[in-house]
Amino acid sequence: MTEPSLSERIALSEAINVARQSVAEKVTDEFFVRHPDWVARYGDRGRRLGIEDAVYHQSYLASAIESGSVEPLKAYAHWATGMLRARHIAPHFVAENLRQIGEALRRVLSAQQAALVDEYVAAAAGACEQEPDTEVAAGVPTEALAQARGLYLQAALKGERRAAAGVALQALKQTSDVVDLYVDLFQSTQYEVGRLWETNRITVAEEHMATAITQYVMAQVYQEVDLAAPTAGRVLVTGIDGELHQIGPNMVADVFEMRGWDVRFLGSNMPHAGILQAIEEHRPDVVGISATMLFSLPKVIRLVGDIRERFASSPPRIIVGGRAFLATPALCKELGTNEPVTDLRGALRLM
């Protein structure tokens, strides 16, 4: 099959998103007919959650197709299988649901589009059958941060804001580079919190609380750090519309400002038009765009295109980063951006 162009992939992605709600409802109803015991086990709530899951599966499928790489969809399917396994849903049910979605989409797509969907769905279903990931230890921090890490995680999960702030501020005094604090304390703690939620060891409320505490503590640390004079240039950092993960780009904005950049941090979930307006007003040398979720990539593609078109006479350098880009280096090449940045130290090296 001829490799589809970016415009063809965008058209297919949009077609999937148009059909995803009706497809999700159909495949969920069919799934409950196939498995009548699920009606007794989960009832109406199970159907509602099944529809939500099928919508998510299609959002990730559409985004992976638009990115031009099946790898992020395989990674998502493997992650989703592990997360649901921890909640007592067997992997073969996830694979079955993905194949149902492929069959339903085939009825509303062209033959060429359906062939590409079949390829992606088969790869995702295969990823569901892989063994679960083993726990990966966080990087090796300094001795001071190694001691602080466990205390900080414990305080964050208990909802103890002052205790968490006290741990971080004490660690700051013992750390020669604030970047180490951001990476080896804040970032590593957030990864661990996410892993604990994925494996059903903490509730979603505890996960949200710990994240909110880290945002609070980062603000306390920021106030204690001397900022360099803003002589390096102007940078604008933003998350796109629909992207709710803010800690990553917040870290980047903080550390860039500490290193002498004049920073405008717009936060996450920023409307497309608002980003363009902020670029118009700030005229940054660099625009940093963050995306954590794979389904954010289509909006990144459109934003990059609009920035290039609107500011063609004096275009800013565009850098992209976040976990959504881990398996999509070819997309970054198509967009003419940097190789994707996936951690804070990588962003600093790039700048």
Number of strands: 4
- The helix count comes to 14
Architecture of the largest domain, according to CATH?
A: Orthogonal Bundle
Under CATH, the topology of the largest domain can be stated as Globin-like
* Structural Rg: 22 Å
The helix/strand series, from N terminus to C terminus, equals HHHHHHHHHEHEHEHEHH
Distance between the termini: 39 Å
Strand pairing plus helix content: what structural class? Answer: alpha/beta
Largest sheet strand order: 2-1-3-4
Number of domains: 3
In helices, the fraction of residues equals 55-70%
Could you please describe the fold and organization of this structure?
- The protein has 3 domains: 123 residues, Globin-like (Orthogonal Bundle); 82 residues, Orthogonal Bundle (Methyltransferase, Methionine Synthase (B12-binding Domains), Chain A, domain 1); 118 residues, 3-Layer(aba) Sandwich (Rossmann fold).
- Helix content is 66%, strand content 6%.
- It is globular and about 60 Å long.
- 37% of the residues are buried.
